[in-house]
């Protein structure tokens, strides 16, 4: 077997570490991506990846517009990184079709995809096959969850239970008297725990009622 001979003073070059881009997504602004970021940063550290960019979205999984994901794909086209790290499949795309479209584009760009929760790496053919299988299973599972929620809401309505926040009870006459007494919109809104727009609406409704002509009656 032939062996490579190094000339005197030659130092073997160290393999270049891969550059990684991290993507996280949470469904609401009240949630935070720190847990996902911690796991993905640890994964990158263990694999010797250099994190060059982190992208994040705070948006529902069903929404089409995702600024963070759009920027990630734009940077992937510029070959800014070699691998994309996500916490789970459902953080990445809104449907199986969308997910596979993203994977196809990353594959054509030569960018690997790694999912922390599913432990899937598209660096090899087995990883890509597993992505398709798991993604196909995840879609009907999500649909089942949505249907269960809707069924629960239908049942609650049939049983007469309140869904969501109860409507505010407003003393309309007192609110109008307070406004007429010289209280500002903000003062009236704060006292009755409503918005300024609600105060304006009620006052406008009163004005409309007062301006309506009385119904004409028949002569006796």
Q: How big a fraction of the residues is strand?
A: 5-15%
Backbone shape: elongated
Number of helices: 8
| Separation, N- and C-terminal Cα atoms | 123 Å
Helix share bin: 40-55%
Unreliable segments of 5+ consecutive residues: 1-13, 215-220
The fold-level CATH name of the largest domain is Rossmann fold
Order of helices and strands: EHEHEHHEEHHHH
CATH superfamily of the largest domain: Resolvase, N-terminal catalytic domain
Q: Tell how many strands the DSSP assignment holds.
A: 5
Instruction: Tell me what the CATH architecture of the largest domain is.
Output: 3-Layer(aba) Sandwich
Counting helices, strands and paired strands, the structural category is alpha/beta
Radius of gyration from the CA trace?
Answer: 30 Å
What's the number of structural domains? 2
The main pleated sheet reads as: 5 strands, mixed
Q: CATH first level of the largest domain: which class?
A: Alpha Beta
With strands numbered from the N-terminus, the spatial order across the biggest sheet is 2-1-3-4-5
Mean of pLDDT: 79
Please outline the helices and strands.
Layout: E1 19-26, H1 34-47, E2 50-58, H2 67-77, E3 83-86, H3 89-92, H4 96-108, E4 112-115, E5 120-121, H5 125-158, H6 172-180, H7 185-192, H8 196-211
Parallel strand pairs: 1-2, 1-3, 3-4
Antiparallel strand pairs: 4-5
Helix pairs in contact: 6-8, 7-8
């Amino acid at each position: 077997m032939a062996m490579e001979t190094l000339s005197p003073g030659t130092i073997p070059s160290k393999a270049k570490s891969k550059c990684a881009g991290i993507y996280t997504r949470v469904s609401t602004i009240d949630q935070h991506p720190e847990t996902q970021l911690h796991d993905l940063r640890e994964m990158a550290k263990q694999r010797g990846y250099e994190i060059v960019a982190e992208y994040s979205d705070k948006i529902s999984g069903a929404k089409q517009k995702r600024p963070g994901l759009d920027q990630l794909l734009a940077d992937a086209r510029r070959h800014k990184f070699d691998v994309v790290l996500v916490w789970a499949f459902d953080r990445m795309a809104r449907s199986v079709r969308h997910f596979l479209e993203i994977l196809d584009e990353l594959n054509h760009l030569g960018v690997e995809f790694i999912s922390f929760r599913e432990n899937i790496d598209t660096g090899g053919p087995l990883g890509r096959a597993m992505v398709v299988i798991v993604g196909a299973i995840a879609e009907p599972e999500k649909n089942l969850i949505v249907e269960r929620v809707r069924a629960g809401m239908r049942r609650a309505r049939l049983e007469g239970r309140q869904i969501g926040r109860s409507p505010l009870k407003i003393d309309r006459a007192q609110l109008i008297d307070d406004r007429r007494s010289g209280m500002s919109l903000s003062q009236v809104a704060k006292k009755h725990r409503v918005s300024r727009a609600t105060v304006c609406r009620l006052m406008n409704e009163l004005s409309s009622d007062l301006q309506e002509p009385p119904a004409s009656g028949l002569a006796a």
